[in-house]
Amino acid sequence: MSRETKSNRKAILVTYPDEFTKKEAIGLAEAAGFEVAQVVVQKYISHGEFGVGSGKAEELKQIAAASGIRDLIVDEGLSSSQIYNLGKLTGQHITDREKLILDIFASRATTTEAKLQVQLAELSYEMPRARQNVRLSVKGERQGLSGMGEYAVDVRFRALKKRMTAIKEKLGEARKRRELYRAQRQKLNKPLVSLVGYTSSGKTTLFNRLASEDKEVASSLFTTLGTTTRNVTLPDSTEILLSDTVGFISRLPTYMIEAFKSTLEELNYADLVLLLVDASEPYYNLSIKYHSCLDILNELRIPTSKVVIILNKSDIATKEDMTEVKQLAGDLPCTVISAKRGDGTHVLKSLIRQNLGIVLGARHSR
What we know:
366 residues, Rossmann fold, 10 strands, 16% strand, disordered N terminus
């Protein structure tokens, strides 16, 4: 189904009962071009024949029949057989969480590298489902040999592997170009500072303010998929390179992180990593997002000694919120800003300079 035909289509959403998960799932659906007409909660998802309980599956069938809505979004990764069974029972087109995120990525990708990364993630999603998908497509028919004398399942599987290998080779070429750019940057002898954070935390707004840029800013998820690097001058005239990166999200499958590694690996070469947090959110939501970001940084093997916490949106957060949120940072350096209004950015620049001195000093003393 094309993204054009999906735009503004009504959908029923099946998600978990807690408010944070519901809100995020609705945000993902809207970012993919759906209008969520009804939310159905389920305590356990991805289990059993339908991915939801048989009773819940029957309920969804009745809702679909009464409403005429033909799109069903399930906020969890499902197997091909679960998607097939649920779709056959309800008469709906099923989109699971992973496919939803991939669709958003595909609609946001603008650079050649980002498009390749999305294609790799899509193939990684499809690979484990390929054999089952082909079997389901010929269900009820006699499975025989294809025209090449091989089973259709194997032909499909090998075609996917071949495409994946080709894309990895192209991404390898992109990685080599990055290495050349990195070598050129090192000759400039300017420290590299990378902005990271949960999607929609305000990274691009802060990047625009610090670098005097006008990159697209939107409230929808995953506005930024690539990496943009610009020169920024600190208060003592020190020049740094500031980099904006793809936003993080909870329950992001490992293969998606792997697909974007040629972009995310830039964080490994950063002298300092600024982790942006939306301090205006309820503490429970914020805590989930904060720890999700730390988990991804840990998966990328980024040491916490390079991390500075930035509490954003002080213009709409209360002092009580800030006090509570600061406890999350623990011993990590932390500052409060409003990227939108510019409050605290001068202090942030001083903190960047201070921590660069600590990090670079420790590196030179080894």
